[in-house]
Design a protein that fits this description.
Helix content is 36%, strand content 15%. With 351 residues, it is an alpha/beta fold. The longest helix is centred in the C-terminal third of the chain and has 26 residues. The termini are far apart. The structure holds pyridoxal-5'-phosphate. Pyridoxal-5'-phosphate binds next to helix 4.
Length: 351
């Protein structure tokens, strides 16, 4: 048995997957109870009367090329949120297994665990060390019931990168014991390489990427899990049938071509420049206690009075994220980097 089938829920390993209607584009379809005609006004390429290809080959290849990995290591889902859910479902037995998270961090890891009935072990990031991983505590608290460890780098909402060597050491020690998931939702805003290149040596590493942030396609709902092909095969049994909508497939193939990717990197450069400008301008405001350095497209900022700052922003018709409910952040707001005009309006509201 492979490491993945030993670690996963036995019910999922034994599960016989739902049988999709066969995908044979050369033949006419009288096997899926679809209508033979398009709906009025349906101008999609393939026709929305047809079920889409499960895990569409063209999409998987495009995502694999984008992230520089093998297609067998790729699962596409409705946002990386879906991949988070699938990992917890496939590896955590309700009532006995657990996930480990390092708060303050992205909330969906714990939500997915609770939906599945898995326990949540929390090992806080070290607020006194720029929200670095507490390596020793992670390893100590990673008991036999912990099946999935979620690490987010750059971390949401704090914006810092986690140290690569620390992640690699943690993953090295957890081989065969847990899936170590590194959520790289904001990696495109950094100069750092993806940890996907360690997958050959650390097959229990899993990487999350998304088109929602730097690629500007949050509405398309398309995220990617990069993992051992064994993990991909298990999760393909758990993902709902025909999960990638035909409209998403067509939009992503159209918008993710090489010419448009060059444009995406220009936008990323602009966001990064604005991030530096906003960081400096916020730090100069009297009501700002501090701005945490960010590697993402947002900045976490501590105010003397976050409630008042929220209201002033709202008066300027701008929403920023109240981060006061996160542990260890105090009076903080998470501010997404907007257009130059939006960022100026926000600064004006706070001056
Ligand atoms: C936004 C975000 C996601 C979710 O992305 P989708 O692909 O849109 O589901 C995942 N992880 C982190 C840390 C995020 O901030």
């Amino acid at each position: 048995m492979s490491w993945a089938t030993e670690l996963a829920r036995p019910e999922i390993v034994a599960l016989k997957a739902y049988e999709h209607a066969a995908w044979e584009p050369g033949l006419e379809r009288l096997h899926a109870n679809e209508l033979p005609w398009r709906a009025l006004g349906d101008d999609s390429l393939a026709g929305l009367n047809r079920y889409p290809e499960p895990q569409p080959g063209a999409l998987i290849e495009r995502l694999a090329a984008l992230y520089g990995v093998a297609p067998e290591s790729v699962l596409a889902g409705r946002g990386s949120d879906e991949a988070i859910d699938l990992l917890v479902r496939a590896f955590c037995r309700a009532g006995c297994d657990a996930v480990l998270v390092c708060p303050p961090t992205f909330g969906m890891y714990a939500v997915a665990a609770r939906i599945q009935g898995a326990h949540v072990v929390t090992v806080p990031l070290r607020a006194d060390a720029g929200f670095a991983l507490d390596e020793r505590a992670v390893l100590e608290r990673c008991t036999a019931d912990v099946k999935v460890v979620f690490l987010c780098s750059p971390n949401n909402p704090t914006g810092n990168l986690l140290e690569e060597q620390t992640i690699v050491r943690i993953a090295g020690k957890l081989a065969g014991r847990a899936v170590v998931v590194v959520d790289e939702a904001y990696l495109e805003f950094t100069d750092t390489q993806s940890l996907a290149r360690h997958l050959a040596k650390l097959p229990h590493l899993a990487i999350l990427r998304t088109l929602s942030k730097a690629h500007g396609l949050a509405g398309a709902r398309c995220g990617t899990l990069i993992a051992d092909p064994e993990v991909i095969a298990l999760l393909r049994k758990v993902i709902p049938p025909y999960a990638i909508a035909q409209l998403t497939l067509e939009a992503v193939l159209k918008l993710l071509d090489p010419a448009k990717l060059a444009d995406a990197s220009k936008r990323i450069a602009l966001i990064r420049a604005e991030r530096e400008r906003l960081t400096a301008a916020l730090a100069a405001l009297p009501q700002v206690v501090r701005v945490w350095p960010s590697a993402a497209n947002f900045v976490l900022t501590e105010f003397t009075d976050a409630g008042a700052a929220l209201e002033r922003a709202r008066d300027a018709r701008l929403l920023v994220r109240d981060a006061r409910a996160y542990p260890a952040l105090g009076c903080a707001l998470r501010i997404t980097i907007g257009s130059i005009e939006q960022n100026n309006r926000l600064l004006e509201a706070w001056r």
